[in-house]
């Protein structure tokens, strides 16, 4: 396997989770449970949210609803008592050939009555692994008091230091993830990939499963071709046209040469016939 694959996913202080980890097997994960047990919310908390940091409510809901903003998954209902809460969502990737680990994640802070949601994204790329030798909460406080208090952005930035990056803009985070794992030259191509993931997770897809629907989704998700890729293709087609024209010209010449050869053979027969006929007649006279 020559690519990055998801190894672990983690939640800290988000929705009904205090802290939870999910283990992947060769980049795959199955969440099982009855309807309403939280499978969709859990999965949508990672994909596509952790892949691009886009916090719009319609992207968090499989049905495209805007009813619940991201703040709800941090603060809950008004009577739950949360007024200020910081949480983390993260994905760890593993590269089998390089035997190396990288982790991406987002930090979120919601305060009741404050419309602006605090956001920061991070990349950990020096081999440290969350909950093994790197923690998203105050580890010393946890050892002393048993409390897992999530790090704020500034402390996280200090702890990551030169071992990664911390950004505060959603677009900067999305581009950082693309560069670290996917390598699309154009940011638009990465956005198209995320759109495809959103389409494929839609419940409507399972209800209205038609080959034409799948074809349309996959066609829309095709990345645009670069100019240099198109130029090489156009050069190839132009060369093929030239070869075809040359072949047609050679075929025409061959046909005309065939006509000349036929006439020339008849001409030679006409000239050679008297010379051949005389010896034959003499032989017939000598040997009747």
Textual characterization of the structure:
The protein is α+β, with helices and mostly antiparallel strands. It has three domains: 5-183, N-terminal domain of mukB; 185-224; 233-288. It contains eleven helices and six strands. The chain has helices at 39-46, 49-52, 57-60, 72-75, 139-145, 153-160, 170-182, 187-200, 203-207, 211-221, 227-286, and strands at 5-14, 17-23, 84-95, 100-111, 118-124, 164-167. A six-stranded antiparallel beta sheet has the order 2-1-3-4-5-6, sandwiched between helices. Helix 8 (187-200) packs antiparallel against helix 10. The termini are far apart. The mean pLDDT is 86. This is TIGR02680 family protein. It comes from Desulfosporosinus metallidurans.
Key features of this structure:
N-terminal domain of mukB; alpha+beta; 288 residues
Summarize the model shown:
This protein has 288 residues and is of the alpha+beta class. 48% of the residues lie in helices and 18% in strands.
- The secondary structure category is alpha+beta
CATH topology of the largest domain: N-terminal domain of mukB
Shape: elongated
- Spatial ordering of strands, largest sheet: 2-1-3-4-5-6
Uncertain ranges: none
Helix run count: 11
Largest sheet: 6 strands, antiparallel
CATH class call of the largest domain: Alpha Beta
What would the average pLDDT be, to the nearest integer?
Answer: 86
- Oligomeric grouping of the chains: single chain
Report the order of strands and helices: EEHHHHEEEHHEHHHHH
> How many beta-strand elements?
6
Using only C-alpha atoms, the radius of gyration works out to 36 Å
> Would you identify the CATH architecture of the largest domain?
3-Layer(aba) Sandwich
Number of domains: 3
Protein name: TIGR02680 family protein
Organism: Desulfosporosinus metallidurans
InterPro entries: P-loop_NTPase
């Amino acid at each position: 396997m020559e690519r990055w694959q998801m190894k672990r996913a983690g939640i800290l202080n988000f929705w009904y989770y205090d802290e939870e980890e999910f283990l992947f097997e060769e980049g795959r994960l199955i969440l099982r449970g009855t309807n309403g047990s939280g499978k969709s919310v859990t999965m949508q908390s990672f994909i596509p949210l952790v892949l691009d940091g886009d916090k719009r409510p319609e992207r968090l809901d499989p049905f495209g609803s805007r009813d619940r903003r991201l703040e709800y998954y941090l603060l809950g209902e008004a009577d739950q008592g949360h007024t200020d809460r910081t949480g983390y969502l993260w994905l760890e990737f593993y590269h089998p050939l390089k035997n190396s680990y990288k982790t991406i994640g987002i930090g979120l802070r919601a305060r009741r009555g404050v419309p602006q949601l605090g956001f920061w994204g991070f990349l950990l790329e020096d081999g440290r692994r969350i909950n093994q030798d790197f923690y998203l909460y105050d580890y010393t406080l946890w050892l002393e008091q048993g409390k897992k208090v999530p790090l704020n952005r500034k402390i996280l930035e200090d702890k990551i230091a030169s071992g990664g990056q911390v950004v505060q803009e959603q677009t900067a985070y999305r581009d950082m993830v693309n560069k670290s794992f996917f390598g699309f030259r154009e940011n638009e191509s990465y956005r198209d990939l995320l759109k495809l993931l959103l389409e494929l997770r839609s419940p409507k897809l399972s209800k209205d499963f038609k080959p034409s629907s799948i074809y349309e989704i996959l066609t829309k998700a095709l990345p645009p071709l670069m100019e240099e890729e198109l130029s090489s293709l156009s050069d190839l087609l132009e060369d093929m046209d030239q070869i075809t024209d040359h072949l047609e010209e050679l075929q025409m010449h061959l046909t005309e040469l065939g006509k000349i050869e036929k006439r020339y053979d008849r001409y030679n027969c006409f000239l050679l016939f008297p010379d051949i006929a005389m010896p034959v007649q003499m032989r017939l006279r000598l040997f009747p």
